[in-house]
Specification:
309 residues; Glutamine Phosphoribosylpyrophosphate, subunit 1, domain 1; 8-stranded mixed beta sheet; 13 strands; binds aspartic acid; alpha+beta
Length: 309
């Protein structure tokens, strides 16, 4: 029997770890446990970048992205740009279980969720609306030209936009790995923008034979290096999860240098089939992660990989 382990991104991931670790200790599957953990964060209205407390896009629409993956079967499912449905991770799981597809987007994802019996809900919280108005680039500088006025403005520093994702990886007593990634992406994003979080191989990957990995940070840059697949394939080739995460952060830096841009704030977490854990981030990310191992839940700061390393 394997010792159950859970790991999740950011301080709000502690809630996910609390929920998931309890389920794993009771003998539930990794996938059930991590999704229940992620849903607890989706349901927390104080979290501004996951679930219903999130800040909307540039035109005030709150859209959610999520994916799930079962390390035993490599079954996976995802939704992107999902509107008016509370739990994107639960819908991603239904895509995996009830359709022959992997990813449903926008109206199609919503239609599918309604068909599956999910409730149509009003997503915004009052605090979320207030913060969206206060921090909206247009509202911030009254009288000035609106900053995010068209697709050409996409070059504005994304690092300044509010974002963060809860990615939860778990190992259950049967020795199976499972993972989930759920987010509203970037606040004030262009309508239709999709990041790494619903993309299998970018925001998440899980394979019992190699390990599981997940990402958070500027999704465009995670997609560019197929971040989670990169980490898992390094583990398949024999690297420990910690080294694999550090190499992914290093690769982020190298790609940024090659492209002549400042490295984005990004972080990776990883879990091996033996329950070993890894976490690393690019410099300045101040990335924290929560973990359950050896019966203890802790919030830890990840190692940062400096640009010149
Ligand atoms: N990766 C997410 C996205 O780009 C945001 C984050 O995790 O900070 O949509």
């Amino acid at each position: 029997m394997a010792e159950p382990v859970v790991i999740a991104t950011w301080a709000f991931g502690k809630l996910a770890v609390e929920v998931a670790s309890k389920m794993l200790t009771e003998g539930k599957s990794a996938l059930d446990a991590v999704i229940a953990g992620a849903q607890a964060v989706e349901n927390d209205p104080s979290v501004r970048s996951v679930g219903f407390g999130s800040l909307p896009d540039r035109i005030g629409r709150l859209t959610l992205d999520s994916c799930v993956m079962d390390g035993k079967t490599l079954d996976c499912g995802a939704v992107a740009g999902l509107e008016h449905i509370r739990s994107a991770s639960a819908v991603a799981r239904r895509v995996m279980e009830k359709t022959p597809h992997v990813l449903l987007t926008g109206e199609g994802a919503k239609w599918f969720a309604l068909q599956q019996g999910f409730a149509l809900e009003m997503p915004h919280t009052l605090d979320g609306i207030r913060e969206w108005i206060e921090k909206h680039p247009k509202a911030k500088k009254p009288g000035e030209k609106e900053q995010y006025n068209g697709p050409e403005d996409i070059t504005l520093p994304i690092s300044e936009w509010n974002h963060d994702t809860v990615t939860v990886l778990g190992l259950d007593q049967a020795g199976n790995l499972g993972g989930v990634c759920t987010t509203s992406g970037l606040a004030y994003k262009l309508p239709g923008r999709v990041g790494d979080s619903p993309i299998i191989g970018a925001g998440l990957y899980a394979d019992n034979e190699a390990g599981a990995a997940g990402a958070t940070g500027v999704g465009e840059e995670v997609i560019r290096i197929s971040g989670s697949t990169y980490v898992v394939e390094l583990m398949r080739a024999g690297k420990k999860p910690q080294e694999a995460c550090e190499l992914a952060a290093k690769r982020m830096n190298a790609v940024a240098v090659r492209r002549g841009v400042h490295p984005p704030r990004c972080a990776f977490i990883a879990l091996s089939p033996k329950g070993e854990i890894g976490a690393a981030a690019t410099e300045g990310t101040e990335f924290q992660y929560a973990r359950f191992k050896g019966g203890k839940i802790e919030l830890l700061k990840a190692k940062e990989v400096a640009l010149n390393k």
